[in-house]
Amino acid sequence: MRYKPLTFASRHGWQRFRGRYEPAEDTIGVMSTRCGKVWQRLGCLTFVMGVAGGCHDWPGFDRLLAGPKAGSAHGEEWTILCIELDDPQRQHIVNRLAEALRAVAGIDPKAVRIEHGEHASRLYYGRYRKQADRKTGALTFPARLRVDIDLIRHLSTGNRFPFVEALPVLIAEQSAGPPEWDVHKASGPFTLQIARFFNTPSFDQRKEAAVEYVRQLRQEGFEAYYWHQDARSLVFVGNFPSAPERFGPHEQKAAAQLEADRLAARKEEFQYMTFNGYPRRTRTATGQWVRDAPLLVEVPRRENLAPW
Fold first, then answer.
1. Residue 196 belongs to some domain of the structure
2. Which domain range does residue 120 map to?
């Protein structure tokens, strides 16, 4: 297939990039929760210091919370996935598209990268780090990424727009933590999610914090696991086996819930969900403030990665 040079197309009504791939924790509003006297702001959430229990008690957590200041770049690197193909001719097509992309004005040829895998070929552009907005405190992509992705999405070859679905993706890196602690290695069908970690303007070590929490729990004799997703790291405890096969799905989960309740009774911090090391309270319809509860979830498998 022969491609014409890529050109910039100004199209009326084009939906511009608006950060819709931002992690939910980065975009939710500031939430104030009163359950103590000393307050600490972690990103766009307001948490309370000095609450009973919580994984903030482990040694070294305060060190992990000492992150970069607002306006500075954050550790995880992102790139633009321009196109991904699984076509039999994918390598040839992606190579030609990469050549055309490198020739576009405003594109850095050295920032164009190709990845040929066993089942797919991908074309990437650039490397970016999120920054803390000085006004809102939210983590956002830099202006350079928004400009680049808008340009790339508008490029055309003839009447085709090969990069119209370009999107920012996290650059794959070696997973933090021992692989045997990855929740995908848990043998049982259910586990209890008790903690979530995500980067904020003052904290950019969510993977290290999750692994450190798992390490502490395992030292205490609990079967704990982590899962590093694109925007957050989750911590789980427990590996609940299946009920007898004669029971249906609802009975299976009910049996696992009983096991989870017994486990939660052994340690107070298993009785609520923590966010970056601290519990969060939400207001019910009746006006009562309650801590967010932990979640009994199915153990994720590589072929069926539920985001929860």
1. no
2. 17-22+73-170
